[in-house]
């Protein structure tokens, strides 16, 4: 299978062992320093997501402006690239004021993989900002303030109770109800269950189910925000710290999501997330994550600033390859406070100026948790869907399945069906098999049923 515009099948012209060897322009795959295909360009296998256009309530809003975009190598002397994907309006001359309705990388309504937003705009979207002011990135579904939605959860709440009442448990019924709810519906369902049956849904699931099946159902019942909060707490409790969990939850998040996570963490555990992080990480990595938790990242709608890109590239070079030793905190600050479009531009220009992938520079100049965190931020910005596909494969590769990571990642991506559709397409492109078939090979029983349902099978 080849994509529109990509003449060569994956792997024919590209040497994975030499990331510096680039395929001819327009061929796939993009590696670090190149640009991902258009939003929605990764086609999911036939019969899978995304949901059909015009689906009823429960369909997810269109992708946020940060969720990728198509960037081809620009002509010499031009940045950002000027060619827009099919269906987008002609690009503005470089240096013109940004178009508020369509930033770089944002899909146009009706583009494949991005159904039109629901009436009234995206969930939790703020009112339009005054001209010249960059509007804040809205929170992800489930991270914003409570909303009134048109969903009567009575039947679903009763179905859950019947599935767990008496002798035995109807596992299939639990999956059918919980795996098909969006973040806003799950909040209503949990509250309805507790009001009607005077029982806590999470407590009942923990009593009636076991192992990774239980863990996955509990993640669904808590919703994305509270799952993040509880997973962070567990990652920092007891001996050792699960740094990889902290990376998954905290890195490359919007300011609005980070503020929601910090607030919910404080309310749930009566502890400051920043203080807990300080006690768990080494000195410089601690400073890196405190920069992240400051939630001062450039908003997704902020236009790429070419002068700042040039300065950031030179700062990174002088902090790494251009000196004896490495100024780790300066690099951490740049990758933690720039938005994805700016980081993508930095990676592109670094390759142009120094003929080295920024990914390789970070890999050689850093080590340990800080290296992993910086690579996470960079790879997410360069191609968020391919990065997510790699994260999912990493949780299944090698001897044994990293079940904790597989469950948490599958459920985290399942909350946004448009993003999941692109991740599944990226996974198919990279690994030549569907994500669902790969999950089936690594799981079994009720656990398998839940994971496959969450990826839309």
Automatic annotation (TrEMBL):
**Which PROSITE patterns does the UniProt entry name for this protein?**
ANNEXIN_1, ANNEXIN_2
| A Pfam cross-reference name | Annexin
Give the InterPro entries listed for this entry.
Answer: Annexin, Annexin_repeat, Annexin_repeat_CS, Annexin_sf, ANX14
Biased-composition ranges, Low complexity, are 19-34, 55-72, 97-113
Domain of life the protein comes from = Eukaryota
Keyword Calcium recorded: yes
Mind listing the UniProt keywords for this protein, alphabetically?
Annexin, Calcium, Calcium/phospholipid-binding, Repeat
Q: Does the keyword Cell inner membrane apply?
A: no
Q: Which family does it belong to?
A: Belongs to the annexin family.
Q: What is known of its domains?
A: A pair of annexin repeats may form one binding site for calcium and phospholipid.
Q: What name does the UniProt record give this protein?
A: Annexin
The beginning of the lineage is: Eukaryota, Fungi, Dikarya, Ascomycota, Pezizomycotina
């Amino acid at each position: 299978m080849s994509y529109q515009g990509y003449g060569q099948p994956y792997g024919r012209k590209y040497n994975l062992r030499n990331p510096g060897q680039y395929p001819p322009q327009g061929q796939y795959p993009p590696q670090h320093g190149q640009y991902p295909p258009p939003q929605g360009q990764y086609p999911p296998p036939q019969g899978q997501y995304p949901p059909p256009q015009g689906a009823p309530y429960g369909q997810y809003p269109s992708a946020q402006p940060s969720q990728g975009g198509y960037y081809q190598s620009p002509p010499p002397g031009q940045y950002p690239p000027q060619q827009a994907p099919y269906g987008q309006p002609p690009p503005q001359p470089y240096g013109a004021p940004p178009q508020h309705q369509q930033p770089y990388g944002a899909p146009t309504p009706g583009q494949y993989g991005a159904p039109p937003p629901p009436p009234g705009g995206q969930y939790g979207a703020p009112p339009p900002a005054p001209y010249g002011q960059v509007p804040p990135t809205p929170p992800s579904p489930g991270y914003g303030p409570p909303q009134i939605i048109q969903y009567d959860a009575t039947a679903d709440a009763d179905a859950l109770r019947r599935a767990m009442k008496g002798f035995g448990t109807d596992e299939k019924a639990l999956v059918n109800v919980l795996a098909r709810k969006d973040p806003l519906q799950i909040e209503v369902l949990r509250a309805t269950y507790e009001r009607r049956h005077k029982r806590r849904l999470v407590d009942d699931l923990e009593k009636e189910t076991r192992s990774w099946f239980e863990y996955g159902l509990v993640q669904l019942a808590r919703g994305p925000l509270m799952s993040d909060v509880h997973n962070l707490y567990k990652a920092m409790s007891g001996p050792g710290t699960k740094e990889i969990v902290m990376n998954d939850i905290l890195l490359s998040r919007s300011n609005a999501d980070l503020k929601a996570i910090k607030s919910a963490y404080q309310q749930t555990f009566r502890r400051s997330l920043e203080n807990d992080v300080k006690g768990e990480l080494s000195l410089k990595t601690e400073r890196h994550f405190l920069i992240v938790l400051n939630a001062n990242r450039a908003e997704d709608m902020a236009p790429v600033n070419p002068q700042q890109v040039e300065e950031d590239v030179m700062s990174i070079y002088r902090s790494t390859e251009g000196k004896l030793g490495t100024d780790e905190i300066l690099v951490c600050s740049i990758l933690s406070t720039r938005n994805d479009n700016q980081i993508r531009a930095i990676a592109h220009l670094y390759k142009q100026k120094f003929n080295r992938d920024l990914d390789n520079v970070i890999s050689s100049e850093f080590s340990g948790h800080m290296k992993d965190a910086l690579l996470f931020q960079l790879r997410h910005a360069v191609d968020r869907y391919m990065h997510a596909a790699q994260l999912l494969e990493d949780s299944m590769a090698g001897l044994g399945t990293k079940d904790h990571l597989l469950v948490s990642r599958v459920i985290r991506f399942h909350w946004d069906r448009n993003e999941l559709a692109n991740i599944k397409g990226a996974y198919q492109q990279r690994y030549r098999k569907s994500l669902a078939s790969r999950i089936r090979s690594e799981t079994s029983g009720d656990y398998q049923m839940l994971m496959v349902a969450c990826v839309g099978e």
